[in-house]
Amino acid sequence: MTDGARPGARLHAWLAAPVDGAGLGAVRAFVGIVGLWQTLRFVAHGWVETQWLEPAFHFTWAGFDWVRPLPGGGMYALLAVQGLAALALALGWRTRLAAAVFALAFTYGDLVDKALYLNHHYLLSLLALLFVFLPVGAALSLDARRRGDRPVPRAAYVLLRAQVATVYVFAGLAKLHPDWLLAGEPLRIWLQAHHDLPLVGPLLDTPGAALFMGWAGMLHDLFIVPLLLWRRTRAVALVAVVAFHLTIWALFPVGVFSFVMLAAVTVCLPPAWPRRWLRALRPTPPSSPRRIGRLALGLGAAWVVLQLALPLRHLAYPGPVNWTEEGFRFAWRVMLIDKTGHVDFLVQPSPDEPPRVVVPDDLTPLQARMMSTQPDLIQDYAHHLAARWRARGYPAVAVRADAWVSLNGHPSRRLVDPAVDLASAPRGLAPKPWILR
Asked: How many CA atoms lie within 13 Å of 23's alpha carbon, on the beta-carbon side?
């Protein structure tokens, strides 16, 4: 390639340049292990019953209302397939197929109930989907055992690093908020729960601790990826990211969140880093640049654009996103808010009858807690109540909600307009004018 080559050609050559696939093999193995662990945790904690099978009602996603818990032992069978696929992914056996099966099974389970949404579950689904198309089985895998490890195009690392960077950067940008940086909320609320810990408990129960951790978390999220990519700061950044996520895991009930992030962030290390730790691994043989078609480059660019657009979509909605939660999901607003609320539903069977207060008696405690603070879940339940009353012979039933919510310790205020019939308000992605902003 000459110096006079077009910038596009130079970029294409740089993306197609062969690099060691060991780093991709490592992140694939780590994600597979975490996926298997999460599958086993789901069964061990009894969540198959309490989150999928026992609830009489599920908050379905728009366009995915057909996703329901599988009958009989279907959900256990789904988890068995999911666990085997995660194990195969960790070992690198039939890697693309294993990634596809895990992505489908894991995503199906997450689509059963919107109230159970978790950012790290979403990330696991995204990573597994990317693994279907990227050469993550080219090294450190059973697939590569016979033919030997193969180099991979640099573009594979670029795409995965871009995915990880969007998580951290948008999580950091979301923390640029007065509640987080000036009031230390909601960290102060959460840390107060640890006031009885020996030695550190009294320290955590101070405004200074919340502010320090808030600023540290914001700076960590904004800069950890470039610091890991830069050779001179990599060692310090690696210690920082491990310490950060282990601290989060020790203090807060985050499940496998910390380990999903630690698994994913390894893609920011040099491609050959596993070979420095596992001396028995042979270096990959030299290889000529691999051709990357325009379609593959276009799809990769489209993926990055989509991952940038989804977290920014809240800008198209009026009002503060932390309050309305329009555009809140799929935006990496991680561990950002603390909401408590209470909602009463007023069902008016017909225009000439007085409204009746209805208590949500078919929700689990978790569903009820999530529903009480999220406008779209309140509307979904209003539609559910209306359907129940229409089935009783009341075609003109109206359902209103009186919801009071406190955000980050602020005084409670109404979340939705109590005069609006939510049963007649359409579901969808359009701004909801009945949310009180």
From this structure: 22
